[in-house]
From TrEMBL, chain A:
The keyword Signal applies. Residues 1-19 form the signal peptide. This is Sugar ABC transporter substrate-binding protein. It comes from the Bacteria. The keyword Thylakoid does not apply. Pfam families: SBP_bac_8. Keywords: Signal. InterPro entries: Bact_solute-bd_prot1, SBP. Residues 410-432 are annotated as: Disordered. It comes from Saccharothrix coeruleofusca.
UniProtKB/TrEMBL annotation, chain B:
The gene is cebF. Residues 1-28 are annotated as: Disordered. One of its GO terms (biological process) is transmembrane transport. The chain crosses the membrane at residues 45-68, 109-133, 145-169, 189-214, 244-264, 301-325. It is found in: Cell membrane. Its main location: membrane. Keywords: Cell membrane, Membrane, Transmembrane, Transmembrane helix, Transport. InterPro entries: ABC_transporter_permease, MetI-like, MetI-like_sf. CDD domains: TM_PBP2 (cd06261). It is a multi-pass membrane protein. This is Sugar ABC transporter permease.
Length: 432, 335
């Protein structure tokens, strides 16, 4: 029993504590009716990390005296979504507004019947052209229901070490950089040159490059009828071949993203480039530390066009006792003027077309990245995203638990053929 | 469990005698005052009330989940799915042909052997050392317990860093003494060694203290008689200490079997970025880790439940075999 108590229980502790907390808050806060003792309507809002909503809640409560907002905030995305799916399964216990991150969206879409159609219950002044087209498309079901309002996004750019590239005789003037990062082929060619010149890896991890490339394809692991097409979709195999070839050339630093060694890798200059969603700038700054200030640069020239990585939605589960009021609050929170305030507070990059043009955003610069006008840069990247790739029911599972380990096995010395076989078999098993 | 059962039996049996004397006045119950009847009821039922909380709690948090897991394992039970069709034993059939499951089973057994084996041997030796006339004995005895007191998650994170393939301290040391660096993550055998090291670090001292307690309960006069007969220290250890430690060693072996086969936190935290895959090709994924991945990442609760039950049966079987083996080995000196 020792290990089970210490092990499994501890592993699940976060979930259990969450569940207990959630149960406790619902129990004493609202009772069954979702109203407080003084007759106000209580709306619970479950988010993770930082959405930058704290001040906005106060503002909304002041404008709506009959509403009381109870935030439920979790540190990390993983336990938040585990809680979400567990409560969906249990049929009760969810907040009135549940945040959903893009990586988990496919699983939510597969259970879209348990969420309210915001086209039906949402306020009429919230129109779909508020958001970038692809942002809304991704959360629209096949039968044309809208189950979430977009909050933030993660438009992709490329981050690179200016000093390391120059040391390897790769020119870093704007024109040359544009050429170097024009396509994935030119990107890997520059990587080959870099490895030859320095003997050091070009990028941090194969899966981090693969995922960005994969998301640019029109069709992903599934077709629109939810058939797994990993074998027949030649784009996936050709991406696989390109990435594993680069691995064989020594271009990958073989650092698993978000591991301790990966974080150390930034400090040790273990790699020279990395795919860079808007939120990655802060991660690089804190991992690489002040001694690398000015070494890192970011460019809007992203191989193969644009892309998106991350960002969230606000949904209203059918479990909510006050769906109309919840939708109204979600609509207000995701309006351009509110998202700009959230951007100023916590740096979440807005998904609303109007917000992308606001001066607060466009004038944002980053000292760490050599004074680059990052607001304008990522605003342009957001508009470059071609469209939303359709994500099937197990898409996130396949990406994280099948493709990433398979790529890692190639980085650890396995053959690309074995890795591909592992990927295909794993995907079939996951999709079963 | 055994200790609790004995206690329950002991307490329950004590108040019984009065019942026999009550037998003959079943007809004259009206003659008894309410106070007597109350005493009668008290004597009869109170013991059960006193032990009831344990069994009630056990029924709620132990027995019910156990049985409900068996029930769930008969369905294609996806968490949050629209329907849960009954599939009979299909989950078990799939499991028996699932190569990932057998891979996880082999990993679990390998890590278990690498940890429990050395652990018990070292614990007994450590206990023998602690049982000698050391200076500051209590300090040493408390010292071996320190790894057990520290938080498991913190320990595992530190060990995972030590065993880091690129920037880990262990590899730097290996390089310093002229050996090759080892990819602790990539290579199956070495990943098992790394994980077993974490387990041993945490549990050896704990087991040593249990064995030490038993060692101190061995009567001194047995040793004195052996010394008089001219037995060497080694002979005394193998012919007196070990046989007389038998029940304790059985206890240690059985509990470490149960624990070792359910190992979860160590491989989970050993994986970079907390993945549940147990390495790129599942090279150190244990059964419980695979169960967790099926249940809470793929949300296939039916399959995970089937796995839980198979693991349960395997643990009982291996614990039983261990029990028989250790009884035989440790009894050789006594019979």
């Amino acid at each position: 029993m020792r290990y089970r108590r210490a092990g499994l229980a501890r592993g699940l502790a976060s979930t259990a504590v969450l569940a207990a907390l959630a149960a406790a808050t619902t129990a004493c806060g609202s009772g069954d009716s979702g109203t407080t003792a003084d007759g106000k309507i209580e709306l619970t809002v479950a988010t993770f990390n930082e959405f930058g909503y704290e001040e906005l809640f106060k503002e909304y409560e002041a404008a709506h005296p009959n509403i009381k907002i109870t935030p439920r905030k979790v540190g990390q995305a993983a336990p938040h979504h585990q809680n979400l799916f567990t409560k969906l399964g249990a049929g009760s216990g969810l907040a009135d507004i549940e945040a959903v991150e893009e990586g988990y969206l496919s699983q939510v879409m597969a259970k879209s019947g348990q969420f309210n159609d915001l086209k039906q219950i949402g306020p009429s002044d919230v129109r779909e052209d508020r958001w970038l087209q692809w942002k809304t498309d991704a959360v629209t079901t096949k039968d044309d229901k809208l189950i979430g309002y977009g909050t933030d996004i993660g438009p992709l750019a490329m981050c690179y070490r200016k000093d390391l590239l120059e040391a390897a005789n790769i020119k870093t003037d704007p024109e040359s950089i544009k050429a170097t990062f024009a396509t994935w082929d030119s990107y890997f060619a520059a990587g080959e040159q870099y490895v030859k010149a320095t003997g050091k890896p070009w990028f941090d991890s194969a899966s981090q490059v693969f995922n960005a490339m994969h998301n640019q394809h029109k069709t992903g692991y599934y077709d629109r009828d939810d058939n797994l097409v990993i074998e027949s979709n030649s784009d996936i195999k050709s991406t696989w071949d390109k990435v594993t070839k680069a691995v064989a050339q020594g271009q990958s630093a073989k650092l698993v993203a978000w591991s301790d060694e990966w974080e150390t890798g930034f400090k040790n200059s273990a790699f020279a480039t990395r795919t860079c969603p808007s939120w990655m700038l802060g991660v690089i700054e804190s991992n690489a530390g002040p001694e690398h200030k000015g070494h890192w640069a970011v460019t809007g020239s992203f191989p193969g066009g644009g892309g998106n990585w991350g960002g969230s939605y606000l949904t209203v589960p059918k479990q909510s006792k006050h769906p109309k009021e919840a939708a109204e609050l979600a609509g207000w929170l995701t309006a351009p003027q509110q998202q700009i305030k959230a951007f100023v507070a916590k740096g979440t990059f807005p998904s609303q077309t109007e917000a992308l043009l606001s001066p607060e955003l466009l004038n944002k610069t980053s000292d760490y990245f050599g004074g680059e006008k990052v607001g304008q840069l990522f605003s342009e990247q957001a508009n470059k995203v071609a469209g939303a790739q359709y994500k099937g029911p197990k898409d996130g599972d396949i990406q994280d638990n099948v493709i990433s380990p398979a790529l890692l096995s190639v980085e650890q010395g396995g053959s690309p053929e074995d890795g591909w076989k592992q990927a295909v078999e794993g995907a079939k098993k996951a999709a079963k | 469990m055994t200790s609790e059962l004995t206690v329950a039996r002991g307490r329950g049996s004590q108040p019984r005698p009065p019942r026999r004397s009550d037998n003959d006045d079943s007809g004259g119950r009206a003659a008894l005052g309410w106070r007597d009847r109350l005493t009668h009821l008290d004597v009869r039922f109170s013991p059960y009330l006193f032990i009831a909380p344990f069994f009630l709690l056990f029924a709620i948090v132990g027995l019910f989940p156990l049985l409900y897991t068996a029930y769930v394992s008969l369905f294609d039970w996806e968490l949050g799915g629209d329907e849960q069709p009954f599939v009979g034993l299909e989950n078990y059939v799939t499991l028996m042909t699932d190569s990932q499951f057998w891979n996880a089973m082999v990993n679990t057994l390998s890590i278990f052997v690498l940890s429990s084996g050395p652990q018990v041997v070292v614990a007994v030796l450590l206990a023998a050392l602690l049982n000698t006339a050391l200076r500051a004995r209590t300090a040493w005895r408390m010292g071996v317990l320190l790894p057990y007191v520290a938080s498991l998650v913190a320990l595992t994170i530190i060990f995972a860093n030590l065993f880091g393939p690129q920037y880990g301290l262990v590899n730097n040391l290996l390089e310093l003494v002229g050996l090759d660096r080892i990819d602790w993550q990539a290579e199956r055998w070495w990943s098992h060694v790394a994980i077993a090291t974490m387990v041993n670090w945490r549990w050896t001292g704990y087991n040593a203290l249990i064995v030490l307690a038993a060692m101190q309960a061995i009567p001194r006069d047995v040793y004195e008689a052996a010394v008089v007969d001219g037995a060497s220290a080694a002979r005394r250890f193998f012919s007196i200490t070990l046989p007389m430690l038998r029940p304790t060693i059985i206890f240690v072996v059985v509990t470490s079997t149960i624990g070792g086969l359910q190992i979860f936190t160590e491989p989970k935290m050993f994986a970079p970025a907390g993945s549940s895959s147990g390495g790129s090709t599942n090279q150190y994924q244990t059964v419980v880790l695979y169960m967790y991945q099926s249940g809470f990442q793929s949300f296939d609760l039916g399959y995970a439940s089937a796995m839980a039950w198979v693991l349960f049966v395997v643990i009982i079987a291996i614990a039983g075999i261990n029990f028989l083996l250790t009884r035989r080995i440790a009894s050789s000196g006594e019979d």
